[in-house]
Batch of 2 targets.
Target 1
Amino acid sequence: MSVLDELSTIETEVMAAVSGAADESALEAVRVAELGKKGRVSGLMKTLGGMSPEERQTAGPALNGLRDKLATAIAARKAELEMAALNQRLETEREDLTYRRSCSRRALLLDAGVRGVAAIFADMGFAVAEGPDIEDDFHNFTALNFPEGHPAREMHDTFFMKPDAEGRRKVLRTHTSPVQIRTMMNQKPPIRVIIPGRVYRKDWDATHTPMFHQIEGLVIDKSTHMGHLKSCLTEAFSRFFEVERAESRFRPHFFPFTEPSAEMDIRCDRSGKEIKVGEGDDWLEILGCGMVHPNVLRNCGLDPEEYQGFAFGLGVDRLAMLKYGMPDLRPYFEADVDWIKHYGFKPWLLPSVTGGLS
């Protein structure tokens, strides 16, 4: 084989090895094997001195050209591998610049709000249940006794996903109630759960945001009634607002998934700049609730002649607003350390029934 043929073979082999190098160490091994002091190309360079002037005149430029071409290819591949390694580090060692936001203003929402309510109901014997944010029509609407044409199914209320191949559309869940359905379908009564989670609706003003947090409660057994519901909620909100007794009243209402249905109000004082719970002559709507509708029980495979129970749902964001006297929900989503200091929130202080909820 002539020198030029050998150089062509080396170029083909080395180029393939360079492009196939999976990391920088593998690439360095290729460089040393070919261009190092004892490499193939370096070895051929040493043979130039033994060639005739005519051979050297042809082989010399070819060898130098090959060496430069391989060195350029190795340098380019090294740059690619370094960039890939950097991108991987950026992914695995990413610094979350939203931490200041999520651990400051949202600390109110997640700690003083969700965890505060969860701590109360956990102390009352409730387990925690969770479910997906993206739901299908059955779990979000149909199983909950929403009839066709109900306003909640319309585009102006709900975030719908693009239709799939069969024309079905998933939704960003409009409430945490689908988790009630999943729980009843997968767990045999007695059931006693609370369901915290994010929900999504097309709202944005001082008291509504397109993404907010709810907590729902569900109790299913053979003997639960409205008296149990009222007693449970009155006790829970007395603890949450840290008053001796949060006097409550229940007004008849309508929800597709409960029958009878009610809205719960608590006594408050609106005379000052802040709403004070547990005193005064005013009433404040706090949540919706009721006895689980027989149709919902049937949709979950439960016999309404044997089982009954109650359910309730509330917006934790608004609940926290009431407790801490905040006039607007939207600042929750802004980063402002002074705002945090003003309301006295500390991310490392988690609310508990025994340690305090404020």
Target 2
Amino acid sequence: MKELLKHASTLIGSGEDHIRENIHNHSSNVAFYKDSVQKKDNAIVAMACDFKSKFILVLSSREDGIIADFSGEQIGDCGVIARKCPLNEHNAQLLRTLFPWTAPVSLRNRKTTIGCGDRLGLASVGHIAAVKHFDATPVLAQQSMRELDLTGRTYRQVVDDATFMVFQAGYKDGFGADGDHLKNIPDIDVALSAGMPMITLDLSEVMLAKAGDWQNSQVETAFQALSADVQRRIEQNYFDKTFKVGSLEISIDAATARRCAVMYLKALDFALEVYNHVKARRGDEFDLEISIDETTSPTLPSHHLFIVKELRLRGVEFTSLAPRFIGEFQKAVDYIGDPAEFARQFEVHAAIARTHGDYKVSIHSGSDKFMVYPTIGQMTGMRLHLKTAGTSWLEAVRVIAENDPELYRLMHKCALANFNDMLRLYHITADIGKIDNVDAMPDNDLPKLMEMNEARQLLHITYGPILRDKAIRPLFFAAMHKFEKQYSEKLKSHFEKHLSLLGVPGR
């Protein structure tokens, strides 16, 4: 460290670009992330690491000013004072204050957005490396309450981790943060308090999805239980009406209108309550996504149109909406279904979004759906939001399989032991009996499992038990620190494939 401080003393008065290009000192055990180097007032602030961990290193010729604001250990003096600062909540908040581009923002005016779920707090650098070459904006901090429970993280930690990674990458083009699949206001408040500008409102628990399978007589009985004013409005606005959506037409007969009213009106009233609540907290600086994808049946175009018209009637401003599409969007694998039928139905959903407010169509469980990406990109005109999460975790698993076969075997066995429990939370159809015994496999064959659908789904849904395992966890994070560069390179390549197949224009 003494040699590093001597070297820094020759740079402290230089310009930022000169410091960035010359700050690395080969005689030191500390390595700087060059893109992170920032000159602020009388100090150099940068992300750095040693063989154990990452930290913020603040260098200054004075003891007062910025260096005094960071929490951490003061470690030397050679005409330069240095402070080694842990990646904690205080220092994350200070970074957001000093460098506002490290804070998430509303992306309501960004045309193409990519949700990059990062369950480890390590993936954002790789996501940024890919996205910065495309005309798209990343949502780097994206987690559901289920993911928080399984990983033991908090929304504050998720946002802070994204802040540190954005600072490390020196990324100044803006990013989002999404409290994903939230179902109640207390959970929404937790996400908002952590600084998340995007809320994905999951209406599955307040809409009456089972009414989609009711007989018409049951629907009629439930419809008659609504107030006379509501019945009259639904009849006047929807019964036997045909609506133009671009060059297409959608007809809603009386039976469909009654069914939609019974299924969705209560949920849409709740959406208004949530919208008013979030607007009171954040003004216009938020993104509200409406999620109706957590159902067993695809969202019919007539239902999609009904929902959108009712949201507009209530004055709910939303940035994106996630229908449940035909076919299966299972975790970790490509689209399951007929691509031609998907295209036929998706065209109508895209037309509804384009002609009724020009909101983004949101694709949930959207990673690795390479078969239908060209259709999605073309039919939305790139006005879309794509949600990914587990695919970034699987790239971490791939890194472990390639570099630490014994650790991979431990993770794989943990996944097998917890697979049935995780099936209660995730819907997949993998036959894991097709996966060979990893103890009998040569080390060089282990990475090939990440090309096998059954193994991908096994490892995808068992991330929680793996990350909570007291024997595996320290080994895993130590390996990820060691192979950080390789992980970022794999994520860059993987997400470039996603963006290219979607047809996102390059920058």
